[in-house]
């Protein structure tokens, strides 16, 4: 089974549009858990435009499933993660002003830095993951950092899936096979949707976790959160 971690950034985006507390991010997370999701993902950004640091502090003691915090490990982010002890931290090399994540780490160029950061979190018993492009050299580099898992950056898959699914998935299958042979856990995320998730899962059945937000929350506008979460869970069995 592949675990579904629901990224709730977009629920916070909606809340922040009016400055009040509707929709309530914590309540939404609890409902998502009650619908069967295996985890909640947040990606606080330095400008706190969606998930705030206070959201992370509110969510951490209340969640009953896996909590995954993603972000660029500046000192403020490191402190936030260490103080809230999620199940997993995912390191993402975002520029401060990035609209959304747009690249994986260069795990060769930044190997020493990543090893240092991974060590900090592992010492506190937090599972670590590094966001990477589907590039075999980046998987090998990730292994050298001592990280537990990689998260495959799936934007290219999602775009190319529309044109040629077989070609779109091939680099991901190759990287997943390599990661598995190196005993790295395998997560995936970015632009996964109800349209492409079944194909991704069928081609990489040993995937550990997907984190899905933008499409899932959009699909929930039409179908409702419960229906959508259950459809993903069925596709990930
Ligand atoms: C790492 C990743 O792909 C997601 O966390 C994505 O970056 C979501 O962030 P936004 O919700 O800010 O687009
Ligand atoms: N790690 C990917 C994630 O959390 C969600 O990305 P997206 O589904 O919002 O593109």
TrEMBL record:
UniProt keyword annotation of Transmembrane present: no
Q: Where is the active site?
A: 43 (proton acceptor), 70 (proton acceptor), 190 (proton donor)
Quote the subcellular location field of this record.
Cytoplasm
- Which GO molecular function terms does the record list? pyridoxine 5'-phosphate synthase activity
Q: Which reaction does it catalyse?
A: 3-amino-2-oxopropyl phosphate + 1-deoxy-D-xylulose 5-phosphate = pyridoxine 5'-phosphate + phosphate + 2 H2O + H(+)
Annotated residues for binding of 3-amino-2-oxopropyl phosphate: 7, 18, 191, 213-214
This chain belongs to the protein called Pyridoxine 5'-phosphate synthase
Named in its record, the pathway it takes part in is:
Cofactor biosynthesis; pyridoxine 5'-phosphate biosynthesis; pyridoxine 5'-phosphate from D-erythrose 4-phosphate: step 5/5
Which chain positions carry the site (Transition state stabilizer)?
151
Species? Psychroflexus salarius
Assigned protein family: Belongs to the PNP synthase family.
What InterPro entries does the entry give?
Answer: Aldolase_TIM, PyrdxlP_synth_PdxJ, Pyridoxine-5'_phos_synth
Q: What is its EC number?
A: 2.6.99.2
Query: Could you give a single Gene Ontology term from the biological process aspect?
Result: pyridoxine biosynthetic process
Give the record's subunit note: Homooctamer; tetramer of dimers.
Q: What does this protein do?
A: Catalyzes the complicated ring closure reaction between the two acyclic compounds 1-deoxy-D-xylulose-5-phosphate (DXP) and 3-amino-2-oxopropyl phosphate (1-amino-acetone-3-phosphate or AAP) to form pyridoxine 5'-phosphate (PNP) and inorganic phosphate.
User: Which keywords are on file for this protein?
Assistant: Cytoplasm, Pyridoxine biosynthesis, Transferase
What cellular component terms from Gene Ontology apply here? cytosol
List the SUPFAM superfamilies: Pyridoxine 5'-phosphate synthase
Positions binding 1-deoxy-D-xylulose 5-phosphate in this chain are 45, 50, 100
Q: What is its main location?
A: cytoplasm
Leader sequence segment:
none
